[in-house]
Design a protein that fits this description.
The protein contains ten helices and ten strands. It is an alpha+beta fold. It has a five-stranded antiparallel β-sheet, sandwiched between helices. Strands 6-8-9 form a three-stranded antiparallel β-sheet, with no helix packed on it. A hairpin with a 4-residue loop joins strand 8 and strand 9. Helix 5 runs antiparallel to helix 6. The protein is globular and about 60 Å long. It starts with a helix and ends in a 12-residue tail after the last helix.
Length: 302
């Protein structure tokens, strides 16, 4: 069954006048339908579950945020409960922010933008959902334990005994650390490209891509922001967001960011394997064969 047929099967009275492929990521393919709607189709079972979480969270929070988020219009039934075959959203106006667009904005407008993003995070992080959603709470240790199993299966056969011991030490540290930070609703993949902006009105139009939304440590949103500087938001801008947000522990955030960057060399092996990205997997395995970079970061107490 084609993607258009899937939509028509669930919504027989809906007329598809046009359907154009837009993009594809790890989880989903996106299509523009009738020029004013965006439909996302999951590429695998885990993505179908994530799409369910994204859609149902958006349905609840869209009127509780100071910045517009996509309005869910269509929900495609999946065979499994707690999953979606597709989701259709209204298309936001404006365009995705790019380094070029950001460079064109005045210092005053960038300051206002930092305030707007901080207000968005404050609101998002304070939302308590009315009904629980399976899989939304993200447990650091459970996540790490699953990833360690993948690493042992995929990486251990091709790296030295010394590196295997280092990797085991890293996961022993993660799995025995006591995590005390409270969890809240987080975007979990935030960068400049998630923001839609209208050049004509000089206004922020909305925020997109809630596919990784979770209940987790709030600092992950700021870590994502820090690690997406190639998208145009520099350190000075992130510092403004943190100031307007009222972040109380920059040193701890810096430590989390450092560990996140360090851990990427292991996480990329997992991503390459799980999403069958052969190039990423081979590159990540080759890097591990050469040695783990920055292993001193494993003395975490975050």
């Amino acid at each position: 069954m084609s993607k258009a047929e899937k939509i028509q099967n669930d919504y027989p009275s809906f007329t598809i006048e046009s359907m154009q492929y837009l993009s594809s990521g790890y989880d989903s393919e996106a299509y523009s339908v009738n020029e004013d709607l965006i439909f996302k189709f999951p590429k695998h079972g885990k993505a179908a579950v994530n799409l369910y979480k994204e859609a149902h969270v958006l349905l609840e929070i869209r009127d509780r945020l100071p910045i517009k988020v996509p309005e869910v219009k269509f929900l495609g039934k999946a065979e499994n409960e707690g999953a979606m075959a597709f989701v259709g959203y209204e298309k936001l106006t404006g365009e995705q922010m790019t380094p070029e667009l950001i460079d064109s904005l005045s210092e005053e407008r960038m300051d206002e933008l930092a305030q707007e993003i901080a207000a968005f995070f404050k609101a998002l992080h304070s939302i308590n959902l009315k009904s629980p959603i399976d899989g939304l709470p993200l447990d650091k240790k459970a996540k790490a334990s699953k990833e360690f199993e993948v690493i042992k299966s995929v990486a251990f056969p091709v790296v030295s005994e010394e590196i295997r011991e280092q990797i085991t030490m890293i996961y022993a540290c993660i799995l025995t650390t006591i995590y005390t930070e409270p969890s809240c609703l987080v975007h979990n993949d935030f960068g400049a490209s998630n923001i839609f902006f209208d050049r004509q009105t000089n206004k922020l139009c909305g925020i997109i891509d809630f596919g990784d939304i979770a209940i987790y440590d709030k600092d992950i949103d700021f870590v994502c922001l820090l690690q997406s500087q190639e998208e145009g938001f520099d350190q000075a801008f992130v510092d403004k967001v943190l100031t307007y947000y009222g972040h109380q522990n920059r040193k701890l955030l810096e430590k989390k960011n450092a560990f996140n960057q360090f851990y990427a060399q292991l996480e990329n092996v997992v991503l390459g394997h799980v999403f069958e990205m052969e190039g990423l997997l081979e590159e990540s395995l080759e890097n591990l064969r050469l040695g783990i970079v920055g292993v001193s970061y494993t003395h975490l107490d975050v």
